[in-house]
Predict the structure.
Amino acid sequence: MRLIAAMSGGVDSAVAAARAADAGHEVTGIHLALSAAPQTLRHGARGCCTIEDAHDARRAADVIGIPFYVWDLAERFRAEVIEDFVSEYAAGRTPNPCLRCNEKIKFAAVLDRAVALGFDGVVTGHHARVVDGRLHRSVDAAKDQSYVLAVLTAEQLGRAVFPLGDSTKRQVRAEAADRGLAVADKPDSHDICFIADGDTRGFLAGRLGARPGPIVDAESGATLGTHDGAYTYTVGQRRGLDLRVPAADGRPRYVLSVLPRTNTVVVGPGQLLEVRTVDADRAVWTGCPPPAAASSCSVQLRAHGMVSPAVVVASGDRVTASLDVPQRGVAAGQAIVLYDGDAVLGSATITRAA
Amino acid sequence: MPYLDHAATTPVLPEAVAAMTTALGELGNPSSLHGAGRRARRRVEEAREQLAAAVGARPSEVIFTSGGTEADNLALKGIYWARRSADPRRRRILASSVEHHAVLDTVDWLCAHEGAEVCWLPVDATGRVDPGSLAAALARDPDSVALVSVMWANNEVGTVQPVAELAALARRYGVPLHTDAVQAVGALEVDFAASGADALTLTGHKLGGPCGAGALLLRRDAACVPLLHGGGQERDVRSGTLDVPGIVGLATAAEVTTGRRAEQSPRIAALRDQLVAGVLAAAPGTVVNGHPTDRLPGIAHLGFPGCEGDSLLMLLDARGVECSTGSACSAGVAQPSHVLLAMGASPAMARGSLRFSLGHTSTTQDVQAAVAAIGPAVERAQRAGTGAVGPA
């Protein structure tokens, strides 16, 4: 096949491209320029998006022996991922920008362009597997990225190639070293790639401005303090509440909900965070037909989150999951991903949890 | 392999390789006083005379540099500093809006850090500076002008500027004019003395010489503050041990290329015209940018509506046809060309262009291969569209 390998400059995508080339595919490496004003050198733990990362990707492509280009997707990324991130927080939800990037950029903008230019698909270094058209978890449970890929449609999955799903991260690093790829020991990236200093709260404050409002106790209804913007709070958050009034029972308090309409942050004891029912919309079914009746499966409610057995009911593009075991810190805007063992059945975007 | 990117760099001439190889085997610092030094010095001075003769300059006007970027920096900063220190009112730089980044960014730096003010001279739709706009900018306040800089021929669209006319205007007010002739030397007749310019940039690797060797031609009466201080080489304007092989390669290439210009330039222009005609037939709707006649013989700058230049370049590269989007890159990301924008093109059109540039090794086969590849490439690139990348 003729494949586009999306190369971030990290070790995973480099090894993925190398494996695809070894498998006999005609591979062309591309690096996505996602910032209109990229920084010259890498800072902190981020592993993409600087000119230094583009250089790392280029060197990896040289070593693998494949052509390499930079595709400028800064404008699409800004419109589809960064603006979505800001408006989701403004609406009191907690978005996952990596998931959005997979959905709208890597397997949409990039894939569409690749197909139009005569390529058959896109190779990435994601830790996940596609088996018979169904998305599966990686064999490396700690590095599994099926959660952030579960939004992909069957059509998108059909053109995705994930050569790393049968390997652990340790194996990938060892192979990179064997192949003479200089990125073999490059640190993993985490944090959000477009927030250079890792200060999400500061980034949102810069975009949305100060919007002071009350922090209210869920049980008494009393105002316990003020905040500078409800959008900087996430359900389940404990730190940074800066409450002057101690709780009656002396136990820590958590953010229970964020109410954008009244700009209110509701806090309360940990047990009130527990939810048993999760409502979601924008369902995508790739591992099975939309279930006609209530059916049992496992659900995961955030990246690297716990997996819980649940009974799921689907209706149109909506999904309701009743969790066997209550879970804490379930935030609207995150994805609920449904699994049958390691296989992804589908996903949806959480709208409400109770 | 159809290499159609000679304006980026062109193959080194065998004559230059031979001369450089000999020089590389020889010992001597041209500044040394002993026999080895004298022999090296002789090589450099012969090269200086050879280069000067090729471009209508006096040997004493040749200042060897590391290339075009350094020569542009030296001319702009050096002349600006010298003119300003002679009269602090001289802070205005008049430069064309289609200069190479080596000039653009140097001028911007002088504005940001050295109190310069710039007046970017506009160009018409073909990329030419109107002498009237220079005359007006000079006349507005002649005593405040530090220097004028207008390139001899544009590196993207190939348009040739009326340098002699502009230099005469500047001379009327006693203002020095610098011209970046990196693309012109070897392709057009460049006579430094006849042009009336006070400073001229040229570089080796655009005319069949090596990378890393260039020169600033600088009139003896043009004051210029050095950028590099040290051993006082090159009239004390450019210190640094002279690179004998590089200088020998540059001078040899300049002599050979200018000597063959009368036969090569028409041959290259005919191939270029054949390429343009072939592309227009294969991809109707293609726009030819630049001046229709006053244009470098080797450059065909073409706009493909509805395409990303990046897509086309990649598709042609996969077919072995090597060309350029013609604009500056940072990390490989093409910005819309400032040259096309200055000529009045829309940002979409500016992003949808390719520069094919031919040179001394170009053949009819190269042109035929490019013409054969362009039709399907344009079709695919149009399908990929401009929406996936950049502003819709």
